[in-house]
Amino acid sequence: MENSKPNELAILGGTPAFNKKLHVGRPNIGNRKRLFERINDALDQRWLTNNGPFVQEFERRIADMFGVIHCIAMCNGTVALEIAIRAAGLTGEVIVPSMTFIATAHALQWLGITPVFCDIDPLTHNLGPQSVEQLITSRTTGIIGVHLWGRPCDAEALGTIARRHNLKLLFDAAHAFGCSYKGRMIGNFGDGEVFSFHATKFFNTFEGGAVVTNNDELAAKIRLMRNFGFAGLDNVVSVGTNGKMSEVSAAMGLTSLETMEDFIATNYRNYKLYQNFLEMIPGVSMLTYNEQEKNNYQYIVLEINEDVTHLNPDQLKDILWAENILARRYFYPGCHRMEPYRSLFPQAGLLLPHTECLVERVLSLPTGTSVGPEDIEKICEIIKFVVKHGQEIRERLIKRAG
Ligand code: T4K
Hints:
Elements: E1 22-23, H1 32-45, H2 53-66, E2 70-74, H3 77-87, E3 93-97, H4 102-110, E4 114-118, H5 129-134, E5 140-146, H6 155-164, E6 168-172, E7 180-181, E8 184-185, E9 192-196, E10 209-213, H7 216-226, E11 230-232, E12 235-236, H8 247-278, E13 284-286, E14 300-304, H9 306-309, H10 313-322, E15 325-326, H11 341-344, H12 353-359, E16 362-365, H13 373-388, H14 390-401
Parallel strand pairs: 1-15, 3-4, 3-5, 5-6, 6-9
Antiparallel strand pairs: 2-10, 7-8, 9-10, 11-12, 13-14, 14-16
Helix pairs in contact: 1-8, 2-8, 3-4, 3-7, 8-13
Bound molecules: ligand T4K.
């Protein structure tokens, strides 16, 4: 784009750079033949759900892979969170970040528990342990850390705080499947951790999720809750819900496991390419992963410094969308600024300065197996060009708006 002019941008009347839409979270698909074989098998066996053979195999494989005792597969990550929260006995108030997908807060609210929003560390984007401790009251029963973007929380510090105050500690590990913290796989921390296998995650089961834990008692409770509290055919021993994973989802999960390392390798390749092409663009910094740990590299996250780029993430997003690059503002505007929390806790933002600042700066870019090296080079060239001409483009966008 060396000799291009701003009016060649699609948002200013030019032709979009891409014919196909590039999504954040386009599903990775494993070996179709193996998937269809498994689905055929399930159909032949006429066993479609309720702790079927594929679900059991899927659970065993995950537990073995991460060195965790129990894996309980679920229909999705949100229900897995709700069940884990209820089984862990959380009530009253639970401390969570606001910088997360809305499901983390909703799972609590759904159960009549008050989510108390805690600020993040601006460097890690995860719960700041000190801020957590300041929010503990006599009503607090637990902490839910979120390993945002797959980068682990400071599980050690949070564990110390939880023990000191006799609180339960859960982790929303929706982004952190296949990641490690201090050399140990995510899944082994706190009282339990929750994965999401939604279609948009690098590893998917169409819809799906799981709770993993090393606590036998908690696992037993979760298994009961997943299936209405049934302990035998006609024997219901406690309240439960329907959190069961279907055999089709487990078949997809088992098939995805076979190519999971390839998915990660592609994400890593993309991550390094983005890093290479985006470095030196003033005002744009890319979130990095600690390469000493295991990472899934599924999110490419930019932090935009508007003072330098002259364009805010929203304007940049609109410019990219016009080119068919469907960048996302995950997790704008923060849970505390969404309903019902905005109305319930109108002052929450006062305690969340880092969250409020960060949600105004971040932008996620497309990656995964449907994004190739040439796509990334082109995306980065556009970003470079847009930032170079930021002031002029901003003025033209403002003029155009009215
Ligand atoms: N905790 C955290 C921290 C989470 O991030 C999530 C989920 C959860 C808990 C809850 O887990 P689940 O109950 O979902 O298992 C997505 C996902 O719906 C959600 O799973 C995910 N986090 C969140 C970060 O992103 P959106 O708002 O991006 O919308 P969605 O699903 O319509 O799709 C996004 C883009 O992906 C679209 O532009 C199109 C593309 N797409 C989507 C689907 C579903 C495809 O190309 N193919 C597809 O099949 O929420």
